[in-house]
Amino acid sequence: MKTVNVQEKSENDIYKKSDNIFYELIDKNYDLYIEDYFNKILCLERKRSERTHKPILLMLLNIEKIAAENGSERTIRDIVKSLTSSIREVDLCGWYERGAVIGVMFTVFSEDPVWDAIEAIASKVKVNIARNLPPAVVSKLEIMFHVFPEKFDKQKPKNYLNPTFYPDMAKLATETNMATVMKRVMDVVGSIVGLILFSPFFITIPLIIKITSPGPVLFRQERVGQFGRRFTFLKFRSMHMNNDDRIHREFLKQFISGGKVTTAEDGDAAPVFKITNDPRITSFGRFIRKSSLDELPQFINVLKGDMSLVGPRPPIPYEFEDYDIWHRYRLLKMKPGITGLWQVTGRSTTTFDSMVRLDINYIKNWSLWLDIKILCLTPFAVFKCRGAY
User: Fold this and answer.
1) Residue partners of 249: CB distance under 8 A and separation at least 6
2) Which pLDDT tens digit goes with each residue over 7-20?
3) Which one of 27, 89, 118, 360 counts the least CB within 10 Å of its CB?
4) What is the pTM of this model?
């Protein structure tokens, strides 16, 4: 009678199960990783890059024009074969978008400087594709290279974040469910009620601003919203006209980097997010800031859909440029809000990292009940004027 080693049988079962799982992750028609798996690994590598600051090179090959043709399967297989012959074994090749976009992720760069290695890889892949495929096929391909962490391009008119590296967040943002619909309904109804309830202030505050200081009533400023989209942020003007923002830029740079900034009024050593004795603020502006009445026009931003009643505070572009990579998470899943967890707990008396952690905590634990709770706590935070400058 043949004896079977139990341990050997168990190991064989594990290997067989492992092979089956691996086989399920492959699109057998084209020998590419399936879309869900490729994007999941991309997100994991992005998070690793956030911690290590080691870059990722992502190449996206748009094949939509070829996929639309009859008998495109063989051409796509030739494209995949050309790609796999151009990359290393440690590089991952799969569907970024099934049937439309092939992705190749390069994550290990031993050469120094790293950016030279990235350029060399991109050049090599382009040359191999041009060499191994017919010109008629190459002309229909669209090749794009993305690097994470990305360098800021101040000339870009719309986005400060590249959503390409956040397929998980991008899908969540486009999904419509009852909770997100209810949040938007609450935003629309709440902002309309707010505009009606505070309508007397929309008459008196502009009049006083006009009397006490020359210039427009509303202060318009570019802010960074969800996924880095820029929008025009509205407030009642509380400053003198033609101010130099260098004092604020330097203040934020120091604060974000962890530098100690103390209040000038009472000698408290606690950090503050705003300049406490800002010489740019008018006398009436100091009052509406202290009482948060300058924030009322943001109900218009909520109605337009740029903001929500509750969410992270929207940063200024030059502030965002000083963010560490992990700070950016606060602008991905949720729209910025008029009020938020930071405003009703720490407001301007927390460190910058603590503020970001509060925003991330809100995002991870978000519910309609949490929004209602924060909205109920907001008036108490306003009346206390703690951290308001």
Assistant:
1) 318
2) 555 544 444 444 45
3) 89
4) 0.73
